Amino acid sequence: MLDADTCRRFEKLLRNRLREIRETLSGATQRTPAVELETMGTGSMTLEEGFRQRAMASGLRELLDNDRRKVEAALDRIAAGSYGRCCACDIGISLDRLCSDPATPFCAECYEDVRLRRA
Ligand SMILES: [Zn+2]
Description:
Helices cover 73% and strands 0% of the residues. With 119 residues, the chain is an all-alpha fold. Zinc ion (ZN) binds next to helix 4.
């Protein structure tokens, strides 16, 4: 179990991360219509290029959205007092692992399992 100080440190990290994601997301949402309306099929940008950029923008949004949900879930676990424990097997997640990805819901072994099942 993580001590309160460590938990607070991670909470701060996660809140900063969440703010960054939200800022990037609102920026991305504002930029997309410009690509669509003003540059698609006009000037140097071909229709195909326009579609490609839109796809990239929506792919990025999706990634950020997933990230946002992951960070929000981690903050929920902090509030619930279950932060730092694996969501699959309930063992404590190593501090090293939490430092490299504070929002991770899984220990290294379970993460590997999930990753292999998805691949
Ligand atoms: Zn686990």
